Amino acid sequence: MTAGTSRQRIAVVSDIVIVLLYLLFLWAPWDRGAQTAPTTLAWLVLPVTLARHGAGLAYATEIVTIGALAIGIVGALLSITGRLRGSAPLWAAGAWLFGGLVAILMPLWTAVGFLGALLLVLALRTRFVPTPATRALPALLLELWPVAYTVAFAVLAWRYNPQLLLKALLIALGASLVARALLPASPAGLLPASPDHNSP
Questions:
Q1: What is the mean pLDDT of each run of 10 residues along the chain (200 residues)?
Q2: Would you call 154 helix, strand, or coil by DSSP?
């Protein structure tokens, strides 16, 4: 088995592990009771904490929602830029910020555990899997999940309905899987690899 094949397999396995992390922590069996009580979600716990320091609850909730949206936008842009430049660390930073956008739909301490686990998996992926530079369209299609969900969050978040956002997250994941399946194994948009564009 060549080094390229080995890295490809590691990339596929790590991508599957990342998706499983999302599913595990969003429907965490150890937090089933907490998930049925919206007041335990990070999305409301954080505004309540801010409200205790003088901010109105409605204003604090808007601030947290806008902050989460900003994190999602920056994460999606970093992920796409990481693909364009062939920078695994830049892509991983974007993927972790996207995780932060999704984490507000989890109970607070589950969200903290999720972000820690995600950081570990992304660090390992960055260490062992290079990110080849791509052109704009393949980069966008490869990062359709964070892009599509961030757009959905921008439209739907103001209803403050976590279940609606979870459905949007799953739809965005499905669309991204279809988009990846339509890409050829070696997209024509890939740029020639260079030492500067790949992690070791």
A1: 72 92 89 60 88 83 94 97 96 97 93 96 93 92 96 95 94 94 63 42
A2: helix
pLDDT of residue 2: 66
Angle at 107 between CA 104 and CA 108, to 5 degrees: 75
Cα 188 to Cα 122: distance, rounded to the nearest angstrom = 26
Q: How many CB atoms lie within 10 A of CB 1?
A: 7
Q: What are the backbone dihedrals phi and psi of residue 104, each rounded to the nearest 5 degrees, phi first?
A: -70, -10
In the chain, domain spans: 3-29+38-185
CA 14 – CA 88 distance, rounded (Å): 13
Residue-by-residue DSSP string for 49-117: HHHTTT--HHHHHHHHHHHHHHHHHHHHHHHHHHHHHT-HHHHHHHHHHHHHHHHTTSBHHHHHHHHHH
Distances (CA, A) of 107 to 48, 75, 110, 162: 14, 21, 5, 12
8 Å CB contact between 91 and 18: no
Q: Which two tokens stand for residue 156?
A: 């739907």
Whole-angstrom Cα distance, residue 172 to residue 175? 5
Predicted structure pTM score: 0.86
Q: Which of 143, 125, 126 is nearest to 135 (CA)?
A: 143
Q: Are 127 and 151 in contact (CB under 8 A)?
A: no
Tell me whether residue 149 is exposed, middle or buried, using C-beta atoms within 10 angstroms of its C-beta: 0 to 12, 13 to 18, 19 or more.
Answer: buried
- Give the phi and the psi of residue 41 in degrees, each rounded to 5: -70, 145
